Amino acid sequence: MIERSPFFDFITYLAMAFGALVVVIPFWITLVAGSQSLQEVSQVPISLLPSSHLFENLAAAWTRGDLGPKLINSFIVAIGVTVGKITLASLSAFAIVFFSFKARMICFWLIFITLMLPLEVRIVPTYSIAANALLPFQVILDTLGITGLVQAVSGVQIALNWNLLNSYTGLILPLVATATGTFLYRQFFMTIPDELVEASKMDGAHPLEFFFDVLLPLSRTNMLALATIMFVSSWNQYLWPLLITTDRANFGTVVMQLKALIPAQNGTPDWNVTMAGALIIMLPPLLVVAFMQRWFVRGLISRDK
Amino acid sequence: MAQITIKGVKKNYAKTAVIHGVDVNIEAGEFVVILGPSGCGKSTLLRMIAGLEEITEGEIAIGGTVVNKLEPRERGCAMVFQNYALYPHMTVRKNIGYALKVAKVPKAERDARVMKVAQSVSLEPFLDRRPGELSGGQRQRVAMARAMVREPKVFLFDEPFSNLDAKLRVAMRSEVRRLHRDLGVTSVFVTHDQIEAMTLADKLIIMNAGKVEQIGKPTEVYNNPASRFVADFIGSPAMNLFEGEFDAEGHFVHGAGGRMNVSQLNGVRQPGRKVVLGVRPEGVRRTGADTHGAIPAVVDYVEELGASRLIHADANGSRIVALDNDSAELKSGTPVHLSLADSALHLFSLEDGRRISH
Ligand SMILES: Nc1ncnc2c1ncn2[C@@H]1O[C@H](COP(=O)(O)OP(=O)(O)OP(=O)(O)O)[C@@H](O)[C@H]1O
Ligand SMILES: [Mg+2]
C-alpha cells in the first residue's frame, strides 16, 4: 500500500513516534534510575536525566544478586532450551511435512493441542514428572502388575526414580517442547517445492541428507529468527525455574535474582541498585535481538532464494 | 543403457484411476517421447518409472530388473524436471556434483566429472554461480548436467523446455538430440508439444486419458494414425474429420447432405456404415468445377502462412480446411471446388474411433 498524502504521512509518523516512545520510556527510566544515587532516586517526582553513579550501582547489584554465576546459569538454560527447541521443532516438522506415515495427522494434532497447554497450565503434572521423570513408567508397571510380580519372584521392589529437581536437565527439558516452533518450521517446509524433494531423491540422497544438505541451509534465516525468539523467551522464564530450583545458590537464574534485588519491606529503598541489576539482566537478550534483528526480520517476512 | 519394460501398469490415486493399463517396450538406447494432452497421465507414467510414484498394479522393469519396490536411487534413472528443481543455495558446481557427493565419490574424481559434464553443455563459466544468477536456458542446462553426471542407465525428462521461449526451445532440442547421440542413453521424454515430439522421437507414444493410443515412429503415427484421437491430435493444422456414412451408391454422405466421391475406399463402403473420414489439409486441393468428384464449398476465411495458406471453407455444413499454394485472392463467401487426394484418406469407426484399414 503506497499512500502519498502529507496528512497521512504525518499520522503515520505520529503513530510510529508514539509507539517508539511507549517502548523506549521504561528502558530509559531503568537506565536513569540505575545511574542515580540513593537520594536522587528517592526524590518525588524522579528526575528523567541520568546521573553519574551507574558503575557503583552496577557493582552493588552484581554482588548483591550474585549475578556472575547466575548469568552463567541463565546462559546455559537459555542456550540449552534454544538448541533443544530448534532441534525438536525442525525434526518434528520434517517428519510431519515430508513423510506420509499413518499416524501423521494424529501426531500433527497432538502437537497442535499442546499449543493450548502452555507450561503454566500444566505446571503441577510437569512438576511431578520433573520430581521423578520415570514416574509414568512406574505407573505403567504398577498397573500391569509387573512390580508385584517381580517382587514376588525375586524379592526386589521396582522403584524407578530419576529426580530432575535442581538440575540443568530439569530446567531445560520441560521448556524444550514447542508447538509454536514446529508450526513455524512446518509453514516454512511446506513452501519448499516438491520438485526439490524429488530432485534430491533422484540424486540418491537419504532423507537425512536432504534434511541437512538442502532443508537446513534453506531455512537458515528462519532458524535464526526462531532462535532469537526462543532465546529471549527462555531467558525470561521465571515461574518454572522458581518452582524447580530449591538450590538457588547453584541453580538460580538471573531472572529469579531480580526478586532478590528488590529492596526489602523495611530496608533501604535503594531502587537505583535494583534498576542497575535489571539493566545487567536484560542486556543479553537485548544484545541478541540487536545482533540478530537483520536475520530476524528477513526470516519472518521473506525467504531468500 | 538399459531397456525398459512396462507391463500392465495401472495407477490409482485413492479411488480415481488415472492410468488404465499401459504396456510399452523401450529398447536400450532408444529415445522415446510420450505425447498427449494435459492431464492424460504422462507425468504419472514417467514418475512411476523414476520411482517417485507408487505403481498400483503391473510391473516396470529396467534393464531386466523389476523395479516396483526399489527406491529411486536404486533404479539408475536421472530426471530433468520442468521447473529445473535446482538447489537454490548451492553453486552450479555443487548442484551438479551433489549426486556424486551423496554417493561418496572422492572429491578429486567428483570435480573432474563435474568439469567434464559442464564442458559438454558449455557451463564452465558459470560453475561458481548460484541458480538464481542464471538465465532459464542456463538453469535447464545445469539440470541436464546434473542428470548426466551420474552416468545413469536412463534419462527421464518431464516437459523440460516448457518454461523456455520458442527460440531457446529449438536450441535445447538439438542439444538434447546431440547428447543422446553422443551418450546413447535410453531416454524417455514427456511433452505436450508435438513438434518437439516429432523431431526428437525414435519412438512416439501417444497417450490419452490414461491409455496408450498408439506407439510407433513419428512418421508412422503421422501417416497411419491408429485412432480418431491420434489423427486429430497429431499434425498442425489438424486433420479434417467428417462424421458421416456411406450411401447405397458408395458415396460418403456428411454434414447437411454433402456427398463425396471416395471410390478408393472400395472394400469398406457398406451402405449405412457410420464412419469418420479423415484427410489432412495438404490432401485437400482447389480444383476446377468440372473435375470429377469435386466438392463444392464456400470460403469462410483464409489463413496466410507466408509460403502457403489455409483455406477454411464450408462444404455442405461440414468445415473443411485446405492447404493452398495459389496466391489468387479469395474473399469470404467465394465459392470454390475442392478435391481429395487419393492416397490421403483415413477412415475411423464412429463407434470406438479405431482405424478402419482399407
Ligand atoms: N497426487 C494426485 N492425486 C490425485 N490425482 C492426481 C494426482 N496427481 C495427478 N493426478 C491426476 O492424474 C491425472 C494425470 O496427471 P499427470 O500429471 O500425469 O498429467 P500429465 O499428462 O502430466 O499432464 P500435463 O501435461 O498437464 O503435465 C490428472 O487427471 C491429475 O488430475
Ligand atoms: Mg505433467
TrEMBL record, chain A:
Localization (cell): Cell inner membrane; Cell membrane
GO cellular component: plasma membrane
Membrane topology: Multi-pass membrane protein
Residue span(s) of domain ABC transmembrane type-1: 71-292
Pfam families per UniProt: BPD_transp_1
Keywords carried by this UniProt record: Cell inner membrane, Cell membrane, Membrane, Transmembrane, Transmembrane helix, Transport
Superkingdom classification of source: Bacteria
Transmembrane residue ranges: 7-29, 75-99, 106-124, 171-189, 275-297
InterPro entries (alphabetical): MetI-like (IPR000515), MetI-like_sf (IPR035906)
Main localisation: membrane
SUPFAM superfamilies named among the record's database cross-references: MetI-like
GO biological process: transmembrane transport
PANTHER family from the UniProt entry: ABC TRANSPORTER PERMEASE PROTEIN MG189-RELATED-RELATED, SN-GLYCEROL-3-PHOSPHATE TRANSPORT SYSTEM PERMEASE PROTEIN UGPE
Family the UniProt entry places it in: Belongs to the binding-protein-dependent transport system permease family.
Role played: Part of the ABC transporter complex UgpBAEC involved in sn-glycerol-3-phosphate (G3P) import. Probably responsible for the translocation of the substrate across the membrane.
Self-association state and partner proteins as the record states: The complex is composed of two ATP-binding proteins (UgpC), two transmembrane proteins (UgpA and UgpE) and a solute-binding protein (UgpB).
Protein name: sn-glycerol-3-phosphate transport system permease protein UgpE
Native organism taxonomy: Bacteria, Pseudomonadati, Pseudomonadota, Alphaproteobacteria, Hyphomicrobiales
TrEMBL record, chain B:
Keyword ATP-binding: yes
InterPro entries assigned to the protein according to its UniProt record, in alphabetical order: AAA+_ATPase, ABC_transporter-like_ATP-bd, ABC_transporter-like_CS, ABC_transpr_MalK-like, ABC_transpr_MalK/UgpC-like, Mo/tungstate-bd_C_term_dom, NA-bd_OB-fold, OB_MalK-like
Signal sequence extent: none
Annotated Pfam families: ABC_tran, OB_MalK
A cellular component term, taken from the record's GO annotations: ATP-binding cassette (ABC) transporter complex, substrate-binding subunit-containing
Keywords on record: ATP-binding, Nucleotide-binding, Transport
Domain ABC transporter: 4-234
One BP annotation, GO: carbohydrate transport
Coiled coil: none
Main location: membrane
Localization per record: Cell inner membrane
GO terms assigned for molecular function: ABC-type transporter activity; ATP binding; ATP hydrolysis activity
Membrane topology: Peripheral membrane protein
Family: Belongs to the ABC transporter superfamily.
Name of the protein in question: Sn-glycerol-3-phosphate ABC transporter ATP-binding protein UgpC
Lineage: Bacteria, Pseudomonadati, Pseudomonadota, Alphaproteobacteria, Hyphomicrobiales
